[in-house]
């Protein structure tokens, strides 16, 4: 009887460790889900111009050349956003950088929704481009900085998956809803990400970079679980 009791007692720490790892993984999963909402916006933005072409050209009386500018100016905005993405993410943090990109995308989609001419359309598309250019850098960086080494590759792959899902959704919905409504759909994941950014932890590596050791350990503990010994990983990050 005593042997069975000792066996049960010996298993308790192991069970507690497993439960702790499981709960901490969900924090990483939730944080990744919030981050890849930006990847979803990226996909919707890339796919938006194709199904909306006929409706926009008819409603706003655009020529093919004018619409071509609207479709292609996204890449110019993305280039501008990508150029400054590293600087912004390093200065204000990964979460704040994602919030800034959401503001650009929301502003851009609202300009498209209420557009009366090609100028509004182009400004909106340019703003969206700046937003997704910033997202293209900060989302994969954030994911790679919060995930454990053994899971990093699998979590990073979700970024590309959500870009493809966003583009596919834009193509599918564009066949059955108007171009203005489709632009409103593009705003939705931006709003969801803004709300999620309020609760997910900041990147421990960025916190280490700016010298906030206490905040680094707090964020890392939240990501790895309350009972996990983070001393070794925290020391590696600080190096």
UniProtKB/TrEMBL annotation:
Subcellular location per the Swiss-Prot or TrEMBL entry: Membrane
Domain of life from the UniProt record: Eukaryota
Topological type in the membrane: Multi-pass membrane protein
Coiled coil region boundaries: none
Transmembrane segment boundaries: 25-48, 68-89, 96-114, 126-143, 155-173, 179-200
One cellular-component annotation, GO: membrane
Alphabetized SUPFAM superfamilies for the sequence: MFS general substrate transporter
Keywords per UniProt: Membrane, Sugar transport, Transmembrane, Transmembrane helix, Transport
MF annotations from Gene Ontology: transmembrane transporter activity
Domain Major facilitator superfamily (MFS) profile as annotated: residue spans: 31-239
PROSITE patterns linked to this entry: MFS, SUGAR_TRANSPORT_1
Family matches, as PANTHER family: PTHR48021, SUGAR TRANSPORTER ERD6-LIKE 5 (PTHR48021:SF25)
Entry's family note: Belongs to the major facilitator superfamily. Sugar transporter (TC 2.A.1.1) family.
Name of the protein this chain belongs to: Major facilitator superfamily (MFS) profile domain-containing protein
UniProt source species: Aegilops tauschii subsp. strangulata
């Amino acid at each position: 009887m005593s042997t069975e009791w000792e066996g049960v007692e010996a298993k308790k720490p192991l069970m507690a460790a497993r439960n702790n790892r499981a709960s901490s993984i969900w924090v990483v999963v939730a944080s990744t889900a919030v981050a890849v909402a930006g990847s979803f916006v990226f996909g919707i933005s890339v796919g938006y111009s194709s199904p909306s072409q006929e409706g926009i050209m008819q409603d706003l009386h655009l020529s093919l050349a004018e619409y071509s500018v609207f479709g292609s100016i996204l890449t110019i905005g993305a280039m501008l956003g990508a150029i400054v993405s590293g600087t912004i993410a390093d200065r204000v943090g990964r979460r704040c950088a994602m919030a800034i990109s959401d503001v650009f995308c929301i502003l851009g989609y609202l300009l498209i929704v209420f557009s009366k001419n090609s100028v509004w359309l182009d400004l909106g598309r340019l703003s969206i481009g700046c937003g997704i250019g910033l997202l293209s850098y900060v989302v994969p960086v954030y994911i790679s900085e919060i995930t454990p080494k053994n899971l990093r590759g699998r979590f990073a792959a979700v970024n590309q998956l959500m870009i493809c899902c966003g583009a596919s959704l834009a193509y599918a919905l564009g066949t059955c809803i108007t171009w203005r409504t489709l632009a409103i759909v593009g705003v939705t994941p931006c709003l969801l990400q803004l709300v999620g950014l309020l609760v997910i932890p900041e990147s421990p590596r960025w916190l280490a970079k700016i010298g906030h050791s206490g905040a680094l350990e707090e964020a890392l503990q939240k990501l790895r679980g309350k009972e996990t010994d983070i001393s070794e990983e925290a020391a590696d990050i600080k190096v």
